């Protein structure tokens, strides 16, 4: 404190306590008003108290970092699942489409590109089901026509020529 009074500057360091013989950290700062020295403010803490506070602060920072990392991992996992589960569902849907199960519907309700993709996959499934039904109808009609007795026109071609013509037509279609 004497140094702070004599030099009129802030002083810091370590010293022995007055009433107890333990080491203390201190800061002494002169107080001035209108250029006149009014006194010195001195604050001190024992090294043991300082180390205890520093240790507490250190563990608090470590704990906060660990908690933050844990929360980040949980949030990341949830976010990854929110993307991977719909993609897996769409993959299985595409596999079913590839195996000929048309007409199924995807029900993914998210307001992002995955929802738009699900809508387009549903449209594709409906269109493939429609095309498959048209193909089956066409094949049934052609098969029926090939088995139906033929009425021959009056141009006097033989039935064998008409039969060969219809068979060639059916082969060209498939």
Automatic annotation (TrEMBL):
Gene Ontology cellular component annotations, sorted alphabetically: membrane
Transmembrane parts of this sequence: 56-75
Organism: Leptolyngbya boryana NIES-2135
Sample GO molecular function, one term: phosphorelay sensor kinase activity
Name used for this protein in its record: histidine kinase
Keyword Chaperone: no
Catalysed reaction equations from the record: ATP + protein L-histidine = ADP + protein N-phospho-L-histidine
Keyword Transmembrane helix carried by entry: yes
EC number(s) stated in the UniProt entry for this protein: 2.7.13.3
Domain of life: Bacteria
InterPro entries given in the database record: 2C_sensor_his_kinase, HAMP_dom, HisK_dim/P_dom, HisK_dim/P_sf
Membrane topology: Multi-pass membrane protein
UniProt domain HAMP: residue ranges: 81-133
Compartment list: Cell membrane
Keyword list, A-Z: ATP-binding, Cell membrane, Coiled coil, Kinase, Membrane, Nucleotide-binding, Plasmid, Transferase, Transmembrane, Transmembrane helix
């Amino acid at each position: 404190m004497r140094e702070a009074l004599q030099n009129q500057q802030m002083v810091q360091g370590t010293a022995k306590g007055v009433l107890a013989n333990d080491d203390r950290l201190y800061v002494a700062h002169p107080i001035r008003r209108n250029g006149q020295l009014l006194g010195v403010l001195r604050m001190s803490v024992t090294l043991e108290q300082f180390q205890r506070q520093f240790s507490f602060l250190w563990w608090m920072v470590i704990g906060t970092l660990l908690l933050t990392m844990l929360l980040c991992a949980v949030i990341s996992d949830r976010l990854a699942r929110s993307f991977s589960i719909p993609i897996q569902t769409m993959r299985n849907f595409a596999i079913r489409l590839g195996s000929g199960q048309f007409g199924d519907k995807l029900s993914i309700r998210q307001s992002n590109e995955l929802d738009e993709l699900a809508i387009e996959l549903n449209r594709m499934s409906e269109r493939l089901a429609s095309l498959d039904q048209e193909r089956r109808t066409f094949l049934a009609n052609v098969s029926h026509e090939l088995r139906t007795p033929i009425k021959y026109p009056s141009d006097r071609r033989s039935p064998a020529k008409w039969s060969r013509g219809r068979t060639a037509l059916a082969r060209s279609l498939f």
